[in-house]
Amino acid sequence: MSFNDLGLSAELLRAVSDQGYRIPTPIQAKAIPIILQGRDVLAGAQTGTGKTAGFTLPLLHRLSGKKPADNCRPVRALVLTPTRELAAQVAESVVTYGKHLPLKSGVIFGGVNINPQISMLRRGVDILIATPGRLLDHVNQRTLDLSQVEILVLDEADRMLDMGFIHDIRKVLALLPKRRQNLLFSATFSDEIKRLADGLLDAPVLIEVARRNTASEQVAQTVHLVDKGRKRELLSYLIGGGNWQQVLVFTRTKHGANRLADQLTEDGLRAAAIHGNKSQGARTKALADFKKGSVRVLVATDIAARGLDIDQLPHVVNFELPNVPEDYVHRIGRTGRAGNEGEAISLVCVDEHKLLRDIERVLKREVPRGNIKGFEPDLSIRPEPIQNGRRSGSGGRPGATTGARRPGKPQHARSTGNRNGGNAAGDRRRSTGAKPTQGAPRPRRVASR
Ligand code: AMP
User: In this predicted model, what pLDDT tens digit does every residue of 70-85 receive, in sequence order?
Assistant: First the structure.
């Protein structure tokens, strides 16, 4: 099957070919012809499957069929996403695939000045990509009219529900015309998603592509059993020893992400944290620095990382296992994308054995155990309960040291770290892990992701 067989216009085929895509991915091959027919779609597809082009290309095709009046450009397609990053990425895709078409698009999300968005909406856009909260702010300020929307896309709908956007979504739905095409994309199909789909979609075509946990052969997964207090040291060792130049690391909490990024920076690794408490500017900068290689380790929480499209990400590390097994699948979906091989490593301490078992149940297989000499877990350590994802994890028990606890501890391989001639200063500091872990204050409130 080639893109030429899908019924897309010459302008879109040219944009696709400009991107270097030759063969449609399974979700594209299935979804594009159906969406072109104007049908509603319920699609089970995760990030990394090519789903964005799967809905963007036919959406652009349908909108370009009718020439908008010059003096009035109502929003005719609305794409809702859970996070700002995903909104920005979808918007980028719309621009990329629509570059040979006379359509205008815009993106709105919170955390940034609303005024430029108001000006953009006043000038008029055909396609609007938005996060729900800021979208409703505009509606309330009467700077946005949704009465002409012809196509609605809910991207990563499961994540929107996880993030508590259901009421916002329902408010948005009430503002849309009754007759419209609806496309719902979700990685998982919980009862809540099914309820949302039932109320929203009209005789939908169900499209499912292989979940990444069945199609993840190109991701080599390994579990390293290690003491909680030595995880950071092992992480630095893996990054340095493997000369990894780009690694995405997951923690469960924002607090944990900040602290780990600080600690890795102390270890001489260029690291940044990305999570919901960071300003939009800081998140965008961290991601841009990571993409261009000036940040080597990006430490992220699940929600912040959701939908990040970083091409050919070679390494993902679960510094802490997620509470929800499906999040593990999302996390490792960041690597081994679009045919590239990737590696996903999980650092698992004794507290997390149950979480690991749950994940392996979802995967329907055991994740191979790795063995790094000198980092074997201390079997005398008893598990501690993980409370609502707020466990500190990165620093270990207060007062514990992160290094020199037993013979045979591998040397931190900092000298291998910067062969590419990057920021040598960033890697100059030697991390022996011998200094005591900081007092690891526990967050007092339940940390959100
Ligand atoms: P998505 O699942 O939409 O986040 O897309 C994942 C990645 O696959 C993005 O980097 C796209 O640029 C890329 N991609 C999408 N469609 C294709 C295709 N047909 N061939 C190769 N790469 C693609």
Answer: 567 899 999 999 998 8
DSSP state of 438: P
The pLDDT tens digits of the residues spanning 172-199 come to: 999 999 999 999 999 888 888 999 999 9
Cβ of 48 below 6 Å from ligand 1: yes
* Sign of the Cα pseudo-torsion (359, 360, 363, 368, in order): positive
| Structure token digits, residue 203 | 């005789």
Decide if 3-208 and 219-419 have a common fold: yes
Name every residue whose Cβ is closer than 8 Å to that of residue 338 and which is 6 or more positions away in sequence.
25, 48, 50, 311
CA 209 to chain centre: 18
As given in the structure block, the two tokens for residue 440 are: 């690891």
Domain ranges of the chain: 3-208, 219-419
Residue type, 400: A
Q: What is the pLDDT of residues 235-266, one digit of tens each?
A: 999 999 999 999 999 999 999 999 999 999 99
Distance of CA 88 to the CA centre of its chain: 12
User: 132-140 and 166-174 helices cross at what angle (nearest 10)?
Assistant: 40
* Per-residue tokens: 117: 């968005």
For the domain spanning 219-419, the CATH number is 3.40.50.300
Query: What spacing in Å lies between the alpha carbon of 338 and ligand 1's midpoint?
Result: 6
**Segment holding 206, helix H or strand E:** strand 205-208
Contact 383, 353 (CB under 8 A): yes
**Distance between Cα 341 and ligand 1 center (Å):** 15
Q: Ligand 1, residue 3: give the atom nearest the CA.
A: 19
The Å distance, Cα 92 to ligand 1 centre, comes to 13
Architecture of domain 3-208: 3-Layer(aba) Sandwich (3.40)
